[in-house]
Amino acid sequence: MAASGAGSPGRLVQYVVVRSDLVHKLSWPLGAVITQACHAATAAIHLHYGDPDTQCYLSELDSMHKVVLGAPDEAALSGLSESLTQAGVSHKLWIEQPENIPTCLALKPYPKETVQPLMRKFKLFK
């Protein structure tokens, strides 16, 4: 996906979407859920390490910007992954092993305005 138009590109952001039901309904420890988000974010960066937006994002370590959103359940997370794939948005759906449970996903860094419209139906993770 292309960066924004003339002038400097928009703020780079990495979106992470975590299943909120893991904490609120399935009683996973919060630390375990945070670990899942870390796995997904690291994997997305690794998979897209050579991408110019990823390199720019990493070059400004002290000003990286992440947004962590909550998906209500596995169906919503999987649906988002499918929508992102159809839109050509690079991301990593993290599937916890050996349980084979989709727990979260992370996008590679993008200019915020490029991907924000696809993320609007999800609220900040609480």
TrEMBL record:
UniProt keywords, alphabetically: Hydrolase
GO molecular function, one term: peptidyl-tRNA hydrolase activity
Catalyzed reaction equations: an N-acyl-L-alpha-aminoacyl-tRNA + H2O = an N-acyl-L-amino acid + a tRNA + H(+)
Family annotation (CDD domains): PTH2_like (cd02429)
EC number of this enzyme: 3.1.1.29
Protein known as: peptidyl-tRNA hydrolase
